[in-house]
Design brief:
Phosphorylase Kinase, domain 1, Aminoglycoside 3'-phosphotransferase, Chain: A, domain 2, globular, 2 domains, 10 strands, 40% helix, alpha+beta
Length: 337
């Protein structure tokens, strides 16, 4: 949706929500990031200014899966009922719905927070925090994740049944078939077979985030975790998927130095200890979940690289990440033995 059209639609929407005929809507901006269509806006009413963040599904898609923004509402509302903001930092939904009169699609609105996602590149604010504050931030992030995983899935019936483990592997087949630079993914069939042959058993099942990594940790400049964001991939299934995902993004053996060394958060052992300290129980089959994460992101990279090169979703960062496609698959193979 173009900003001009959204601004026009936000006028009557805010008028209805604030119960006034003359809300002043301003500072309507497209928010940064890769996930969904998100915008910030401010509303002035009776001398008070409120700042909001609205999420809409992408245009011209079916409103299901990642495009079903109400799945995120389901989880955020469940977090409200289960935890206070200090236990699991998150945004509370102010307004949401599927009434098409406002935006022609489902939507939800949360407060527009002040801060930034954790950025760890050279010269970025996160790297300037220092080791002690980064360790504390890691503790906040892994403790919050562990608590999410301990939630009752009965709190989120809209998310449906648990995702079968076999689907965690096979759902990436169609993306692999459409990936650019297939030579970089030549060992995908081997790793896929190993993943299916060594399916984990008796692992914890619950609510998962689906994309738990530093880009979805929204923080204050001082290193305080303010919110876990971007719940587009949330669902019910093996919660250790989130742990494997987070650890993979801090595993130096999974990434190529070609094109520049990838900035890392805390080392895998530290992240696993911080999570395990809260769970208080063994974490079975972690190698399998780490391998699955590396396998998935290698395929995702190839798929998005193809979209970028065809001009369908231009993002030159995938040309850098492509150097790690083979490294990720090799790491997955190694973790599987």
């Amino acid at each position: 949706m173009e900003l001009e059209e959204l601004t026009e639609r936000l006028g009557p929407f805010c008028g209805a929500r604030y119960e006034t005929d003359d809300p002043h809507v301003f500072d309507v901006v497209k928010m940064p990031g890769h996930a969904g269509f998100a915008y910030g806006f401010r509303v002035e009413v009776a001398g008070r200014v409120d700042s909001w963040f609205i999420r809409l599904p992408p245009p011209n898609v079916n409103w299901r899966g990642t495009a079903d923004v109400l799945r995120q509402v389901e989880v955020l509302n469940a977090l409200d009922r289960t935890f206070d903001a200090n236990e699991v930092p998150h945004c509370s939904v102010k307004w949401s719905g599927d009434d098409l009169q406002w935006f022609g699609c489902p939507y939800f609105v949360v407060p527009w927070l002040k801060g930034d996602v954790l950025r760890l590149g050279k010269g970025e604010w996160g790297r300037e925090l220092g080791e002690t504050k980064l360790l504390d931030l890691g503790r906040q992030a892994m403790e919050a994740l562990a608590k999410v995983h301990q939630m009752d899935p009965g709190e989120t019936p809209y998310l449906g049944d648990p995702v079968p483990f076999v689907d965690d592997v096979s759902r990436w087949d169609r993306f692999y078939e459409r990936a650019a630079d297939p030579d970089c993914l030549k060992d995908v069939p081997l790793v896929r077979r190993k993943l299916l042959d060594r399916m984990p058993e008796n692992v914890p099942v619950g609510i998962f985030h689906g994309d738990y990594q530093t880009a979805n940790l929204f923080c204050s400049p001082e290193g305080q975790l303010l919110a876990l964001i971007d719940w587009e991939l949330t669902g019910v299934g093996a919660t250790l998927n989130d742990v494997g995902w987070m650890v993979t993004f801090s595993d130096p053996d999974a990434w190529s130095a070609e094109g520049g060394v990838r900035p890392m958060f805390l080392d895998p052992d530290t992240l696993l200890k911080l999570y395990g300290d809260v769970i208080g129980a063994p974490l079975p089959d972690l190698g399998w979940f780490r391998a699955l994460a590396a396998y998935k992101f290698a395929i995702i990279t190839g798929f998005n690289l193809g979209l970028h090169r065809r001009g369908k979703r231009v993002d030159p960062t995938w040309e850098v990440t492509r150097h790690s496609m083979t490294t990720l698959i090799n790491r997955a193979n190694e973790l599987l033995g």
